[in-house]
Amino acid sequence: MTSTHEPNPAGSSGSESVQLPSPTLWPLLLALGIALAATGLVTNNIVAIIGGVFALAGCVGWFLQVLPRERHETVPVAAKPVTIAVSRRKVARIGAVAEARPHRARLPLEIYPVSAGIKGGLAGAGAMALLAVLYGVASHHSIWYPINLLGAVVYAQTQVSTSEMEAFHLVLLVVATILHLTTSILVGLLYGALLPMLPRRPVILGGLFAPLVWTGLLYNILDIVDPALNQRIDWGWFLASQIAFGIVAGMVVVRQMRVPTWQFPLAARAGVETPGMMGEEHHS
Predict the structure, then answer these.
(1) Which residue, 52, 109, 137, 144, is most buried by CB atoms nearer than 10 A?
(2) Domains of the chain: which residue ranges?
(3) Largest CA distance in the chain
């Protein structure tokens, strides 16, 4: 069904009008009747009869609305000036690298050093440990409970009572410390490698997206890796500690100074002939 534009007769203000189908409620009455008729099949015959009457009335009224000639109404259209605003963003240009051909630049041009990832991992480990200790004090009145819970991986096949988990154990402390520091440093190195590639707000993305993915992964495999931890873990506190780690580690990493990446591949740096990557030799 198409609308037609009709110009105003001579002497009018210059605005146009458009013909639209006249508004009608008959289609709604038809839909209501069909719905009542279908409902009556599983409820009561009276409901089905009422629905049939409504549907029949909707059909007749709708047909009279469009037959033998479709009814229209003329709606005036007021011309309104349209202002188009264009916003342009500045595009960052990749500068030419002194020792490499500009169109052969290897991305990213700058990365965070390994030390930035180690610093971020250690800082995030401290924030995560602080929240774990607060959880132990709040839930079990013992700072050793979360530490022993992490170190209980050495007792994965042994049932350990709650009282034993709340007591001090040197072996569990050493195991938990090694696990916590190793995992934190590895994740910090991963943050150092990924954050330069994130477009905007890397700390928020690293502090929210990564913890959610990591928590979801552990939720599905922790029963196999550490059954004792899986039975006693509080996932709310665990997710909060992961977010704290991500935010703190990300803030430490992004505050470090970036270093330029090697623009020549290893083969070119080793002196091996690499067509298309090494400069052309000019012979006189």
Answers:
(1) 144
(2) 17-77, 102-260
(3) 104
Does the pTM surpass 0.70? The reply is: no
Question: 95-110, pLDDT tens digit by residue?
Answer: 555 554 445 566 667 7
What would the two tokens of residue 212 be?
A: 């959610």
CATH of domain 17-77: 1.10.287
pLDDT at 11: 42
